[in-house]
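Appendix B, Record 12. Input sequence as logged:
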Amino acid sequence: MEVLRPSLVKINGRIYRRNVIKEEQYEEEEDFSYMGPSESEELAADETCDTHVIEQTDKGYRCAIDVPSVLYKYIIGKKGETRRRLEADTKTSISIPKQGVEGQIVITGSHKAAISSAVTRVEVLMDSFRRKQPFTHFLSFPLNDPKIQEGFLKFKDEVLQKCSQDHGVEGSIFQNPAKLHLTIGTMSLLNDMEVRKACEHLQECQNVIREITEGKPLPLEVTGIEYMNDDPAMVDVLYAKVNVKDRSDKLQVIAERLVEHFVSAGLMVREWDRVKLHGTVINTLFRRDATGEDTGSSRRQTMSEREAFDARKILKEFSAHRFGEFELNTVLLSQRYSTDCTGYYTSAGSISFS
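Logged structural output:
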């Protein structure tokens, strides 16, 4: 990172500079400095906190912040160094629950602006390290309609019959038909409260979605395949193309509205300017351990280990493969790595189009 061109983080409309902490401090820790008025200027201005309630007490001021317990260690830092620095810089006291106990971080101090400054810095730390957590939940349009599953299994059988001699093509890299879906966006929901919050925000989108669909399911057709890599001879992900039958952009609009809502709620990070709707049918991350050892579950390859496959013949033979048609009527908030009795990902919440 160049000193004069540091990476920036935007939180609640403010811009912060991201500075990497020296190695002797907490090994995953990063520090942030607010790119705006100096701390003395903030104290003088006695500015208020935008996102949290700062209460006046007999001894000064107090603010409680909901923080998932998995993030406590980042605010504490190595041997408590980060917390001590925050307290010294903002002239506040920061109380953190014991590790593993869900609760609130409580910040107290003599000045309201000092509390506001401490809250802002804690929020920036939380945002930074939340981005490093693996995603736990995702919004999706399910594609596991029986007709689409049938078309997918036909596709899989024919590909293995015609292309199994091509480099990297074998059965384990195909999607589980029960899990076929279009991913809208992913989230790291780190405790039950955040899951409930996400469910509530999904319900808030119900009326907007129904306005777009006019209260009716969306007739979709799943036809054709595409790949994500630049080289068709070295492909990691192959996906089915999904379109609304009347060729409208309603599905894309719904996806964009959902992402906008969840990003504004602080539950999702926008990765792309436009949601890339794709129904994965082949992914090399699904590939089984080359040793063939039966460990009771398929070993997932890491990004550095994954072996690409040659998709040139598949693309030539199946470019117009018809997976089928169905009526989409649901948006799901699903839990990663957990499946229900149907084989699809366990649902934490849902809304319907009709």
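The CA atoms of residues 235 and 250 lie 29 Å apart.
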